[in-house]
Amino acid sequence: MNLDKREGQKNCVPLERRIGWPRQGVATPPTHSMELGTVWIRGTAMKVTCIERTIKDVLGSDYYRIPRFQRPYSWEKEHVEDFLTDAIVENPGDYFIGSMVAFKYPDGTYGLVDGQQRLTTITMMLCALREAFDLQGESELAKGLHKLIERKDLDYKNRYILGTETSYPYLQEHIQKYGEPGTGAEMGDEEECLQDAFLQLQEYVESALGNVTRKRKTEAAKKKLATKKLTEMRDKILSLTLIFIALDDEDEAYLIFETLNTRGRDLRLQDLVKSRLTRLLKPTNRGVDLAKDKWVGLVERIESSEAEMKVDSFLHHFWLSKYQYVTVKKVFKALKRKVTGSNAHAFLTGLDEDSVLYREIHEPSFRKWTKQDGRMRGALNALNLFKVQQQIPMVLSVLREFRDGGLDRRHVIGVLQAIEKFHFVFTAVTSQRSSGGISFMYALHARELGRKSTKRDKVGVLSDLKTKLKDRIPPYGEFEANFQEITYSKSATKHRKLVQYILARLQEHHTKSAPVDYDFLTVEHISPQGSLRSATASIGQIGNLIGVSDELNQELGSKDFKAKKAMLSDAGVWLDDTLMKAPSWTSRQIEARTKALAKICYEVVWRIR
User: Fold this and answer.
1) How far is CA 70 from CA 12, 108, 584, in A?
2) Taking 80 as the threshold, does the pLDDT of residue 264 lie above it?
3) What are the CA-CA distances from residue 315 to residues 272, 304, 446 (Å)?
4) Which of 46, 137, 502, 503: CA 20 to 30 A from 30?
5) What DSSP character marks residue 158?
6) What's the CA gap between 71 and 114, in Å, rounded?
């Protein structure tokens, strides 16, 4: 932690040391209540109070609210299992579960900045125990436990101890509520996660009761043991201990949160960025929170994609497309210097708008492409087929310029196809390894593209990138050797998509046709699979393959070579010279055609111009 060492701050030491910062999971609590007074963090003076508290004390004395922008509940099965193991199975009493960072609202409610996932799970566990007490006929014990879930406030109105916004009303009406659940709630990802976790907790409690009552014959004996077990589990949960870090100001709480979570703790970049924007963009109207809506919208847009994108990757690629080159671990540090109160809204708006482009890059079908833009979509599909990521910041920058009118369609298509051609040779065929220079090159040109003010200068950046790509193309000998290894047959399907792509692009280039959707292209083996038994390896080589429609594939069947060649020619399928001039079709002709196609691919079709 970066504490200022200036006059009047002689006793400043890292916050972790001042509170005796513990290792999570330690059975013996490491410290007791203490007020640290004024602590300087990154030039900010703040009053910090650190208190050792049990869960019983936490839930029994205050109300809590999970603020906007906080991560929705996301614990999965293994997280809940770990919690149950720590909290109940291996808990000798006073088990330490980490820290909780909070700030105080004007009404006295605490806003949770760190620890909301654990407190939500603990609350659900108490709800599961409450229900189990009720089923055992122990209504008094159930009601007593419910006071740690819901109780009357100073206005004598019922109020849940833990309030949430993103999961409302599901958590309140279907889990926290005592008695019959309330009205139906719309089920989103967070609600399903809560439902699964609560069911897992209920099943755990039910199983624990079954284990202790299974051998008892009388109902009275079973009830006695069940009540004892429930009470034991309740007490273990309530005895869990944490360090409660309380601050008077929301901004200070987020600063503590960011500082603690940039020192090795497991937190996603998106949580840190969300935290930063929360501090800088406060709602101007109690009922309207446009900043939160934008953030939630872009996260949903990314996470709901069929391409299984990650928000952290988007944030990193977005940053590289506009700002200095840093690793993903250093994005937040750089972002804090760049994003301030004066530009936070513009930054979030840029994220929101570019999240649409980012999804289109990874999932081209997300966009309705015009006929003129078909070749853009084709290039994006190809790059996804190659499973390459280095170019994404540059592609994002190019599409941003096209959207905003900074580049014409022909220039966009030209550079996207150049990137596609480069990675076909560099990645898809020769499987070159990048030392990081490729990523840096793309990020550099992405930034330069955005900085140029005229179309002429922007086109100059694209031309320079093409030159750099040409210089990095592997030599032909290496390409040809690897090209011959690309095969497709019934027993070797690994390269099926790549073969379809190659055959489709060859057809497009030589017939000047519109882009061919290679997903619907059928691969025809000129010499049928099962023939040429003495040279089965050549059967799957590209020299023995040709792309046709499914209908034509059915018509070709197992016809001989001459008949197939005539039918293919009549159907308008492009036939290269090697195929046209061959009197018969043997393994020698297949190998010769494979090499001939390799040369056409390298020197003509995938040549960067």
Assistant:
1) 30, 20, 69
2) no
3) 11, 16, 15
4) 46
5) E
6) 10
Q: Express each pLDDT in 185-227 by its tens digit.
A: 778 888 999 999 999 999 999 999 999 988 887 989 999 999 9
Whole-number pLDDT of residue 291: 86
The two tokens of residue 451 are 């900085």
- Strand 44-54 and strand 34-41: the pairing is antiparallel
**DSSP run (H or E) holding 345:** helix 344-362
Mean pLDDT of 543-554: 91
Give the span between the Cα atoms of 348 and 501, in whole angstroms.
Answer: 38
Between helix 290-303 and helix 344-362 the angle, nearest 10°, is 20
pLDDT at 536: 58
7 pLDDT more than 60 = no
- Separation between Cα atoms, residue 180 and residue 173, nearest integer Å: 9
Residues 89-94 have a mean pLDDT of 79
Quote the tokens at residue 149.
């879930």
- pLDDT given at position 135: 95
Whole-number Å distance between alpha carbons of 3 and 477: 58
Q: Outline where 136-268 has alpha helix (H).
A: 139-146, 170-171, 189-213, 219-239, 250-260
Q: Give the strand pairing for 522-525 and 158-160.
A: unpaired
Q: 26: pLDDT confidence band, cut at 50, 70 and 90?
A: very low
Q: How far apart are CA 268 and CA 65, in angstroms?
A: 21
Distances (CA, A) of 181 to 5, 167, 190, 205: 55, 15, 18, 20
For residue 269, give every residue at least 6 positions away whose Cβ sits within 8 Å of its Cβ, in sequence order, or none. 311, 312, 315, 316, 328, 331, 332
CB atoms within 10 A of CB 583: 7
pTM recorded for the entire structure: 0.71
pLDDT on residue 19 = 37
Query: HSE (CB half, 13 Å, CA atoms) of 263?
Result: 12
Contact 250, 275 (CB under 8 A): no
Tell me if residue 222 falls in helix, strand or coil: helix
Q: Which two tokens stand for residue 566?
A: 């005539």
Q: Is the pLDDT of residue 150 over 60?
A: yes
Question: Within 13 A of 380's CA, how many CA atoms are on the CB side?
Answer: 26
The CA distance from 250 to 254, in Å, is 6
Q: With 0-12 CB in 10 A as exposed, 13-18 as middle and 19+ as buried, what is 541? A: buried
* Maximum separation of any 2 CA atoms in the chain, in Å: 96
| Contact by Cβ (8 Å): 68, 289 | yes
